[in-house]
Amino acid sequence: MARSRLTPERESELYATVIDLLGEVGYDGLTMDAIAARTRSSKATLYRQWGSKPELVAQSLRHHKPVRIAEIDTGTLRGDFHEMIRRSDDCRMEKDSAMMRGLAHAVSENPELLQAMRALLIEPEMTGLDLLLRRAVARGEVDAGNPALGLVPHMMIGALVARPLIEDLPVDQAYLTTYVDAVVLPALGAP
Amino acid sequence: MARSRLTPERESELYATVIDLLGEVGYDGLTMDAIAARTRSSKATLYRQWGSKPELVAQSLRHHKPVRIAEIDTGTLRGDFHEMIRRSDDCRMEKDSAMMRGLAHAVSENPELLQAMRALLIEPEMTGLDLLLRRAVARGEVDAGNPALGLVPHMMIGALVARPLIEDLPVDQAYLTTYVDAVVLPALGAP
């Protein structure tokens, strides 16, 4: 018997909806019912195709591809960071910030979800950042022994998470550019 | 008719339990039932004394006094930061980090809770940090126009939130000291 599978377009739409809902209601508040209602699909389809909420969330994260950092190569570290920010539109950054806050607690309770988030979201970003930083070291812009080299993801997560908490303002390109210029590059001793 | 009020000791215990539970189950998962059960008090007492969950959480945050940063004055910015970290024991920092992750999403949905968290937790820390930074500027350790001066809380929140997400390790004194020396002081151009 043929099983009704979603088309790739419908699947993309569904993943995007999961990311939106994650930002709106958080992981605990995210229900299969709400996903089914907003995407106008049946819960049976969701369970048949993804098995469970953690798996569906993990797949949505995987689909929610971050900006491909590794492709960026402007010739300077400052240029690379600015290009990375330029490629992320403001709306997308706000969603990422909301999604990260939505997941912040859930991942500490769900080892599988933390694993998925780390494998799908954090590690590719870190690999991309790492490549970008290694090129800066090779060009002599950053000292190979600089202890801030391993802390760039921490600084960037701080930028994303802290802005709405402290200033009640969304993360946008202007703010992130200021943050990179004022914090990340000076910590790295980069021009 | 005399109403049974909690003793200050019982009240402190209760606030500490709320902070613990917040780190364990997150804001959405925190129920008045669970608080009543763990503190062996009646739900009626909780509602009579605090009215609602957001108010009880806000009061618990208020009671959960951060290290009094403003009192610290070692004569150098590096010394002040190190002293600040020395006064926060590892267990406390892990709890703060868990609590922050537990609240991260909830505050974006509850303007009152965000208000409370900002007034009780973020603003005193920022005032304390600000004092410490202004003294460093007065001593000539940091340039008054350094754009990183306004971003120190963002860097510190990044340090607290990112460590468990990225490395699956708790925040501790050694890590925070490394972070301050490698990121915060260089961004400020401080010795």
From TrEMBL, chains A, B:
Task: Supply the InterPro entries for this chain.
Answer: Homeodomain-like_sf, HTH-type_TetR-like_transc_reg, HTH_TetR, Tet_transcr_reg_TetR-rel_C_sf, TetR_C
Membrane spanning stretches: none
Where in the numbering of this chain does the HTH tetR-type domain appear? 8-68
Q: Which residues bind DNA?
A: 31-50
Q: Which SUPFAM superfamilies match?
A: Homeodomain-like, Tetracyclin repressor-like, C-terminal domain
The GO terms describing molecular function are: DNA-binding transcription factor activity; transcription cis-regulatory region binding
Annotated keywords: DNA-binding, Transcription, Transcription regulation
Tell me which Pfam families the record gives.
TetR_C_11, TetR_N
According to UniProt, the name of this protein is Bacterial regulatory protein, tetR family
